[in-house]
Specification:
The protein has about 300 residues and is mainly beta. It is built from three helices and 21 strands. Strands 4, 5, 6, 9, 16 and 17 form a six-stranded antiparallel beta sheet that branches. The longest helix is centred in the N-terminal third of the chain and has 27 residues.
C-alpha cells in the first residue's frame, strides 16, 4: 500500500473520530439536538416595551428574580409549596368517594404561583398579537378506600394538566420560537423544532427537553417516553393550537407500574416533577387528600 493512500485512510479515520466526539458532546449538552432558539434580545425588548410590562421572561429580570405574570419577583417570594385540600369547607371526602367528588378543577386562584397566568407576544404586520394563557389541573376519577386510592379503570386518569390559550398559537412561527412559557412554576423556552404537530420545550439554564406530540406519550430528554402519560394538542379551525393537555395515569408516577396510592404516600407527576397529590390520613370515615407543589 502506498504511503499517500495510508495517510489518507488515517486522516479519514481521525476525521470520523473527531466528528463522533463533537456529536457526542452536542448530544450531551443538547445544543445541536434541541435547537434552542437564540431569540434576538432586541426583539424581546421591543415586545416588552410594546406591552408596557416589566418582563416577558426571566432573562429580563435580575439574577435573583424570576418573571411571574410580567413582574420581576424575588425568588424567595415565590411559593411553589402551597397545597389545597380536595374536600371543601363544608363537605369532606369519605371512604368510597371519588377524589374529584367536590373539587374537579384547581385554578390559579388556589395555587397562584404554581398555576400562574402568562402570555406569548408576537408582532405580525406591525401589529402586536397577545396569546394569553392560563393553567389548570383537573382531578381524575379515582376511588378512596381505607388503605389506598385506586383508579376505577385502566382508562381513568388521576390528573390532567391543561394549558389554554386565549388565541390559537401557531407553534411553527419563528416569532414565538425562543419565547417562554412558565409552566408549574418553571420557565421553558419554545424550541426551534416546534410546530403544530409537535411542541419542544427546553428548560432554561439546564438544556432539558420535553416534547409533546398529539395522542402520544410525553418524551423527556433524548429518547425517554414517560409511561402512563398522553398528550392532547387541541387545534382550532385555523389548525393552530388552542390547548395543550397532559393526562397522567397512576403508572406515570416515577415510571413505575403503580396501580394505587397507599395511605401516607404521594403521587408525583413524572413530566414536570412539580405536581404532588397526597393521601395523608383517614379519620373514621373521612379521608384527607391534598394537591400542591413538590418541594
Amino acid at each position: 500500500m502506498k504511503k499517500s493512500v495510508l495517510v489518507g485512510i488515517l486522516a479519514g479515520l481521525m476525521l470520523i473520530g473527531l466528528s463522533f466526539i463533537i456529536l457526542s458532546q452536542n448530544t450531551i449538552t443538547g445544543f445541536s439536538v434541541y435547537q434552542t432558539s437564540s431569540i434576538n434580545e432586541g426583539y424581546l425588548e421591543e415586545l416588552k416595551i410594546k406591552e408596557n410590562v416589566e418582563c416577558l421572561q426571566n432573562s429580563q429580570c435580575l439574577e435573583n428574580q424570576e418573571c411571574v405574570e410580567n413582574f420581576c419577583l424575588d425568588k424567595n417570594s415565590i411559593n411553589l409549596c402551597k397545597e389545597v385540600s380536595l374536600s371543601t369547607s363544608s363537605i369532606k371526602l369519605k371512604i368510597g368517594d371519588s377524589i374529584n367528588s367536590y373539587k374537579r378543577v384547581i385554578t390559579n386562584y388556589e395555587l397562584p404561583f404554581l398555576l400562574n397566568k402568562g402570555k406569548i407576544i408576537e408582532i405580525v404586520n406591525n401589529e402586536t398579537i397577545e396569546h394569553l394563557y392560563v393553567q389548570n389541573i383537573l382531578i381524575g376519577y379515582a376511588e378512596i378506600s381505607k388503605d389506598n386510592i385506586q383508579s376505577k379503570s385502566t382508562e381513568n386518569n388521576i390528573l390532567i394538566y391543561r394549558l389554554t390559550f386565549s388565541k390559537n398559537v401557531d407553534f411553527s412561527s419563528k416569532n414565538i420560537h425562543g419565547q417562554a412559557l412558565r409552566i408549574l412554576g418553571e420557565e421553558y423556552i419554545i424550541g426551534d423544532n416546534s410546530d403544530n404537530s409537535k411542541i419542544e420545550l427546553i428548560k432554561t439554564n439546564e438544556d432539558k427537553k420535553i416534547k409533546f406530540e398529539d395522542r402520544r406519550k410525553v418524551s423527556k430528554g433524548l429518547f425517554s417516553n414517560v409511561e402512563g402519560t398522553s398528550v392532547n394538542l387541541i387545534k382550532g379551525f385555523d389548525k393552530n393550537i388552542s390547548l395543550i393537555e397532559i393526562e397522567f395515569s397512576l403508572n406515570s408516577n416515577m415510571n413505575e407500574n403503580k396501580e394505587e396510592i397507599n395511605l401516607k404516600e404521594n403521587f408525583e407527576d413524572s413530566v414536570f416533577e412539580k405536581i404532588e397529590l397526597s393521601f395523608d390520613d383517614v379519620k373514621g370515615e373521612y379521608a384527607d387528600v391534598k394537591i400542591g407543589g413538590v418541594c
